Structure prediction request, 228 residues.
Amino acid sequence: MLPVLAAAVIAAFWFTAPVDAESARPVSAPATDEASAPGATTETAVLAGGCFWGVQGVFQHVQGVTSAVSGYAGGNADTAKYATVSSGSTGHAESVRIVFDPQKISYGRLLQIYFSVAHDTTELNRQGPDTGPQYRSTIFPANAEQARVARSYIDQLNRANTFGKALATTVEPLKTFYPAEAYHQDFLTLNPRHPYIVVNDMPKIDSLKRLFPASYQATPVLVGAATR
Prediction:
């Protein structure tokens, strides 16, 4: 993702970027899923898959998700700033913290949407027009059970040769998640005509609706709604 106030020439490039760079690829459900604790209604997942605008936008439209916040994971507090993370040298990945109700949607189902719709899991340190380790495909498990499910699912998809090549997705320890700056939150919903969003992210919402109709919700769960 390039800066929000990009020059007109950059916007023109976004319009011509190939949409199929992150085309949706439906994948099978995980053979191993997390067993939710009886009565538990809140769980957290942290996923990185390129620019957080699109990943956040996708999961804000998933039923059972109660919050999706853009931010940074993998690095330290003093470098958890957009301008610094963009250097690619901080260890951070642009990530999304997803709070969900495990009675309504499972962790494995979230990962299925992540692999199918939210990003291209075969791209190493890039997504579409964005390059660098800050755009890597990474799962940050909140606990040992999530780590087990994530690793098992990656192995399952690789053994099935689902994508025609090995997944680039890594599983990394979750240190601390740092919310991104306010202007990054709800960016897809607030800026549906932004060139980057039109080319790279709105197709993901369409794919979510088409491939996961039972999990799609038309009204997104917005970060800004919590402050209004």
About this structure: Residues 3-22 have pLDDT under 50 and may be disordered. The helical segments are 8-16, 52-60, 82-85, 107-118, 144-159, 187-190, 195-211. Strands lie at 43-49, 65-73, 93-100, 126-127, 130-131, 137-140, 170-171, 178-179.
